[in-house]
Write a structure and sequence with these properties.
The chain has helices spanning 62-72, 77-84, 88-95, 103-113, and strands at 13-17, 20-24, 33-39, 55-58, 118-121. The chain folds into 2 domains: 1-45; 55-121, Orthogonal Bundle (434 Repressor (Amino-terminal Domain)), CATH 1.10.260. Helix 2 (77-84) crosses helix 3 (88-95). With 147 residues, the protein is an alpha+beta fold. The radius of gyration is 22 Å and the shape is elongated. Strand 1 and strand 2 form a beta hairpin. The two termini are 24 Å apart. The chain is built from 4 helices and 5 strands. The strands form 2 sheets. The chain has a 3-stranded antiparallel beta sheet, with no helix packed on it. It has a two-stranded antiparallel ribbon with strand order 4-5.
Length: 147
Protein backbone atom coordinates (compact mmCIF):
# COMPACT_ATOMS: atom_id res chain seq x y z
CA UNK A 1 0.00 0.00 0.00
CA UNK A 2 1.37 3.44 -0.87
CA UNK A 3 1.40 6.43 1.45
CA UNK A 4 -1.98 8.18 1.44
CA UNK A 5 -0.29 11.55 1.93
CA UNK A 6 2.63 11.68 -0.51
CA UNK A 7 1.87 8.65 -2.66
CA UNK A 8 5.52 7.91 -3.30
CA UNK A 9 6.59 5.45 -0.61
CA UNK A 10 5.24 2.36 1.06
CA UNK A 11 2.85 3.14 3.93
CA UNK A 12 3.94 1.44 7.13
CA UNK A 13 2.42 3.59 9.89
CA UNK A 14 -1.06 4.49 11.08
CA UNK A 15 -1.02 8.22 11.72
CA UNK A 16 -3.71 10.65 12.84
CA UNK A 17 -3.40 13.78 10.70
CA UNK A 18 -5.87 16.60 11.38
CA UNK A 19 -8.40 14.19 12.83
CA UNK A 20 -8.18 11.60 10.05
CA UNK A 21 -6.53 8.21 10.44
CA UNK A 22 -4.24 7.65 7.48
CA UNK A 23 -1.73 5.05 6.38
CA UNK A 24 1.51 6.92 5.76
CA UNK A 25 5.22 6.38 5.11
CA UNK A 26 7.90 7.11 7.70
CA UNK A 27 8.62 10.59 6.28
CA UNK A 28 4.96 11.67 6.36
CA UNK A 29 4.30 10.22 9.81
CA UNK A 30 5.91 13.35 11.31
CA UNK A 31 2.90 15.42 10.14
CA UNK A 32 0.57 13.77 12.63
CA UNK A 33 0.30 11.69 15.77
CA UNK A 34 1.80 8.36 14.93
CA UNK A 35 2.39 5.11 16.69
CA UNK A 36 5.95 4.60 15.40
CA UNK A 37 6.52 1.44 17.37
CA UNK A 38 3.53 -0.22 15.77
CA UNK A 39 3.86 -0.92 12.06
CA UNK A 40 0.72 -1.92 10.21
CA UNK A 41 0.47 -5.21 8.40
CA UNK A 42 0.74 -4.69 4.67
CA UNK A 43 -1.23 -6.78 2.21
CA UNK A 44 -0.68 -5.79 -1.39
CA UNK A 45 -3.36 -6.73 -3.87
CA UNK A 46 -2.83 -5.84 -7.47
CA UNK A 47 -5.71 -5.75 -9.89
CA UNK A 48 -4.56 -7.18 -13.14
CA UNK A 49 -6.15 -6.24 -16.41
CA UNK A 50 -6.64 -9.23 -18.64
CA UNK A 51 -5.03 -9.06 -22.07
CA UNK A 52 -8.36 -9.37 -23.83
CA UNK A 53 -10.30 -7.02 -21.51
CA UNK A 54 -11.15 -3.82 -23.41
CA UNK A 55 -10.47 -0.39 -21.90
CA UNK A 56 -12.91 2.42 -22.71
CA UNK A 57 -12.67 6.20 -22.50
CA UNK A 58 -15.44 8.74 -22.90
CA UNK A 59 -15.40 11.11 -25.85
CA UNK A 60 -14.94 14.80 -25.05
CA UNK A 61 -18.31 16.44 -24.57
CA UNK A 62 -20.15 13.15 -24.04
CA UNK A 63 -22.86 14.95 -22.02
CA UNK A 64 -23.66 17.36 -24.83
CA UNK A 65 -23.76 14.48 -27.32
CA UNK A 66 -26.32 12.66 -25.16
CA UNK A 67 -28.39 15.80 -24.65
CA UNK A 68 -28.46 16.75 -28.37
CA UNK A 69 -29.44 13.22 -29.41
CA UNK A 70 -32.22 13.07 -26.78
CA UNK A 71 -33.57 16.46 -27.85
CA UNK A 72 -33.35 15.46 -31.52
CA UNK A 73 -35.70 12.57 -30.73
CA UNK A 74 -38.03 15.02 -28.99
CA UNK A 75 -37.70 13.34 -25.59
CA UNK A 76 -37.62 14.98 -22.18
CA UNK A 77 -35.15 13.74 -19.58
CA UNK A 78 -37.98 12.05 -17.71
CA UNK A 79 -39.09 10.12 -20.80
CA UNK A 80 -35.55 9.10 -21.70
CA UNK A 81 -34.88 7.95 -18.13
CA UNK A 82 -37.98 5.72 -18.26
CA UNK A 83 -36.78 4.19 -21.54
CA UNK A 84 -33.42 3.42 -19.93
CA UNK A 85 -35.02 2.27 -16.66
CA UNK A 86 -32.85 4.79 -14.77
CA UNK A 87 -33.53 7.83 -12.61
CA UNK A 88 -34.06 11.21 -14.24
CA UNK A 89 -31.48 12.76 -11.90
CA UNK A 90 -28.85 10.29 -13.15
CA UNK A 91 -29.52 11.28 -16.75
CA UNK A 92 -29.29 14.95 -15.78
CA UNK A 93 -25.90 14.37 -14.11
CA UNK A 94 -24.62 12.51 -17.16
CA UNK A 95 -25.75 15.27 -19.54
CA UNK A 96 -24.12 17.93 -17.35
CA UNK A 97 -20.99 15.72 -17.13
CA UNK A 98 -21.02 15.69 -13.33
CA UNK A 99 -20.66 11.91 -13.50
CA UNK A 100 -19.61 9.37 -16.07
CA UNK A 101 -21.96 6.44 -16.53
CA UNK A 102 -20.65 2.92 -16.15
CA UNK A 103 -19.90 1.07 -19.38
CA UNK A 104 -23.22 -0.82 -19.36
CA UNK A 105 -25.27 2.37 -19.06
CA UNK A 106 -23.12 4.12 -21.65
CA UNK A 107 -23.80 1.25 -24.05
CA UNK A 108 -27.54 1.53 -23.29
CA UNK A 109 -27.41 5.24 -24.11
CA UNK A 110 -25.52 4.56 -27.33
CA UNK A 111 -28.07 1.97 -28.46
CA UNK A 112 -31.14 3.98 -27.47
CA UNK A 113 -29.95 7.31 -28.92
CA UNK A 114 -27.92 5.87 -31.83
CA UNK A 115 -24.79 7.77 -30.80
CA UNK A 116 -21.19 6.99 -29.85
CA UNK A 117 -19.80 8.26 -26.55
CA UNK A 118 -17.29 5.49 -25.72
CA UNK A 119 -14.03 4.79 -27.49
CA UNK A 120 -12.16 1.55 -27.01
CA UNK A 121 -8.44 1.90 -26.34
CA UNK A 122 -6.47 -0.82 -28.04
CA UNK A 123 -3.01 -1.78 -26.88
CA UNK A 124 -0.47 -1.83 -29.69
CA UNK A 125 1.78 -4.14 -27.73
CA UNK A 126 0.28 -7.55 -28.34
CA UNK A 127 2.06 -9.62 -25.68
CA UNK A 128 2.85 -7.07 -22.98
CA UNK A 129 0.71 -6.42 -19.92
CA UNK A 130 0.21 -2.82 -18.77
CA UNK A 131 2.41 -1.74 -15.89
CA UNK A 132 -0.09 -0.72 -13.21
CA UNK A 133 2.57 0.28 -10.70
CA UNK A 134 3.66 3.28 -12.77
CA UNK A 135 0.22 4.87 -12.93
CA UNK A 136 -1.02 6.23 -9.63
CA UNK A 137 -3.90 8.29 -8.44
CA UNK A 138 -3.67 11.70 -6.82
CA UNK A 139 -2.87 11.90 -3.12
CA UNK A 140 -3.09 14.68 -0.54
CA UNK A 141 0.63 15.22 -1.04
CA UNK A 142 0.03 16.29 -4.65
CA UNK A 143 -1.92 19.29 -3.35
CA UNK A 144 0.31 20.50 -0.50
CA UNK A 145 3.73 22.08 -0.41
CA UNK A 146 6.15 20.31 1.89
CA UNK A 147 9.03 22.25 3.40
Amino acid sequence: MICELCGSKQAVYDSEIEGSLMKVCEDCSKFGKSSRSKKINIVIKEKRIEDNEPVFVFMNGYGAIVKRAREKLGLKQEEMAKRLNEKESLLHQIESEHIKPNVDLARKLERELRIKILEEIKDDKSNSKPNLTQSRSLTFGDFINRR
